[in-house]
Amino acid sequence: MFDQFKNKLPFDEKHWNDYVGYFKRIQVPSKTTLLQEGKISKKVFFIEKGCIRVWFNNNGNDVTFQFFLEGDRVSSTESFKKNIPSIVTIETIEPCTLWVIGKKDMDKMVSEAFEIPEVREKLIDSLFDRNIHYMKHCLSFIKDTPQQRYLNLIQEKPQIVQRIPQHYIASYLGITTVHLSRIKSKLAREKK
User: Fold this and answer.
1) Domain 2-103's class?
2) Whole-angstrom Cα Rg for the chain
3) Stated pTM of the model
């Protein structure tokens, strides 16, 4: 698993040997809340196996904001960085094997990473990638129909459609499960 991290953050071997002890490997069942909305994030999770969703409460309805799969890193970034209450809940969808690192150790890694140009560049790129994803998702609610949002999801992240329950996908797309079923039926008819 650490080979995936090493590829994303190209520290030298000495740094990685120091950092390996910062991480704890855990296994959690599906439907485990890793961070509750309103609590302060003190951990970052790296996914070895499984799937996680990030969601928030909107007047009693949970709205799925993002999905994370193997090889991804997940946290409530603003809460973790600024020590403020999280605006989202982080929850496992499938049983997960995770590598967890606490704030103090992660802060140390990040500060050392910024001293190494190549690693700093990778960190900045990953932050921009996350921002670009959020921007595209938000803009799609303005410019795309629900059907187009579903087609975009199939094209960009087909594994999500294959692995994640329909009610979470519908929530992510901003529609009901009934509306999602209609879209899928319509697309199936058009394929014939």
Assistant:
1) mainly beta
2) 18
3) 0.87
